[in-house]
Amino acid sequence: MSKPRHRLPLRLLRRTLLATVAVCGLVLAGTAATAVAAPPRTSVLQGTVESGGSGLSKFSVSLYAAFVDREPRWVPLGSAKSDKNGKFRVEYAVPRGLADSDPLLFIQATRGPAMLASSIGVGLDTVPQRVVVNERTTVATGNAFAQFIDGHRIVGNRYGMTNAVGMAANLADPATGAVGSVLATTPNGTETSTLSTFNSLANAVAGCVADSVQCRTLLRTSAPPGEAPSKNVLEAVANIAKYPSFPSSRAPKGDPVFALSQRTPIYQPALREAPTSWLLFLTFTGGAYSVQDSDNLMNGPGNFAIDEQGFVWVNDNAVPQPPDEYACAGLRLLKFTPSGQPVAGTPYFGGGLSGAGYGITLDPSGRIWVGNFGFQDPPCIDPEFAAEHGSSPAQHNSVSAFGADGLPLSGPGGYKNGNISWPQGTVSDRAGNIWIANCGNDSVTMLPSGDPDRAVNIALGPTPVEGRPELKPFGATVDARGNVWIANNRGDTISVISPDGQLIDTLPGTFEGRTVLSHPVGNATDTKGNVWVANSDWLDSPCPTRLQLGEAENPSITAFRQDTRKPFPGSPFTGGGLTLPWGIAVDGNDTVWVFNFGVVPVGQTSDIPTGVSRFCGVDTRGCPEGVRTGDPISPETGYRSDALERITGGQIDPSGNIWLTNNWKRDANPVLNPFGNAIVIAVGAAAPVKTPLIGPPVPTNRR
């Protein structure tokens, strides 16, 4: 017989358990308190301060952290002095309460007025064991973070700052100080002048390292017109990116930055003559190639939509082909990282994609919408030709929708409700309504809340004869009141539609006896809801027929007030390198950027690089001293680069980079494949905006 078990009385058992829990709680609390009270872990960063490969002694080296996941903060972590060989060793620790963050880390090295800097990574675990700080890393950091630099501080919005780390690495390797692999290799490298421009900027900084007089010259001449000298070399580089041209009105004795670069030419290849601008234009084809072929990633990128984190969606006009082949309707949608690399899984197919043109947008829920214009060379219409070349005759009557993962939401034929016809401009408003400009039948299709089953067609004028539109709606933008402005390319008018889909106004192409609209294409809203229109003075969109026009004799842009819908005094505005304005965008400072399709007629020249034009907006606070609304900020040449072809679309990302489409080649053969195969990024050129762009741009210097 087993012995009876001894059991504790229930009351005593409860007391015992409570006491045990209390003791455990005290132990755990003590452990937590000990963890909080423990000093931050100390780490070490080693590196070299160099100029032209030689170590620089007696530089004060400081390591900083920019915290961007909460309230933006700029925090010094540690400092040291470089020895006789330029080597330094910085011991540092992240302050309590911030150890769980992934800060952006920067090195700044100073000696007198000379300064070198580098963006070295995101998060403590990604920092190289050793770094090199030199003129190239300084130029890379100054350009990529141009819109966030204020003195020695680098502070800004979360995604813009984080993404700029990758863009800086495209330009210079923080571990070695060498030219970054993106800038050094095809389709960049020696194929464009961007590498030489970058090296010339580095040479100007090298002059500052070598000579304090040259340093003071750099600080003085880099300052925005009418403002005090730059506070340091890093800010000087940033100011050159923000105000990249030195016309005779600003520098009557010639470009001072170029002159400085000639005195210490240690980095090569470098520019042999002063550029039209110091902007750095990086080219991306989706791979290490530039030659057009059927295995390219894209052929005729048309326009962009940028998501909240800075990832970039691109529509594509045509199937990739060599230059001597016909171009059939594009069947793909592309996505790039904020630093310009194709996202894994791109390109995306399906959803009814068919020769997309200018229309692409993101809605508030993150869906991507693409207007299927149906571009194709005439032989592609033949089913036998299409079958032989693995293509399909284009469709011109749908819009496609994709999820953020790149999977199609629309079926194989796209969404066709609402009498869609040769769609071009495609935009979302903040309520999630999708608006589609139907170039082929003089109307607009509205998808309420993005629902294709509730599609509504809005006539902008009399119903045209089939295939012969008289207005040719093209560009579309949404003002601060939710009204949709449609640029009518052939009609030389603007149609204004209320948020509920009513046509409320038609703005004529003449005002007080002057022409204010001339073959308008793209349009864009500024931060207050005023609308800017790009007047091509040439394009008659082929939807499907077009008139053969001569040259663009009076290319211009026009600003319309949101409240009165009348042209802003002085409109239309000219100059600034306008050749054939197509796309247009407004940045966070209300500066207006215009993207030129280049000289016309097409196919007659490849000698004249395409330029980007820049104008002072309605809010003049972001303009140089003495510059008024509509005045050009860019020189008469525009901001040119041989990296640019014929541009249609452009958008600004949270870092202030401008993304540009090389839609057609400069020397395009209109009969065979005329398209370009690249996108180009103007690094750090514009004031950042919040993305996605839905309605007026929202400035975002902080998030």
From TrEMBL:
GO molecular function: zinc ion binding
Name of the protein: NHL repeat-containing protein
TM region(s), chain numbering: none
Transit peptide found in the keyword field: no
Organism for this UniProt entry: Microbacterium immunditiarum
Source organism, top-level taxon: Bacteria
Keywords: Signal
Signal peptide: 1-37
Family matches, as Gene3D superfamilies: TolB, C-terminal domain
PROSITE patterns per record: TAT
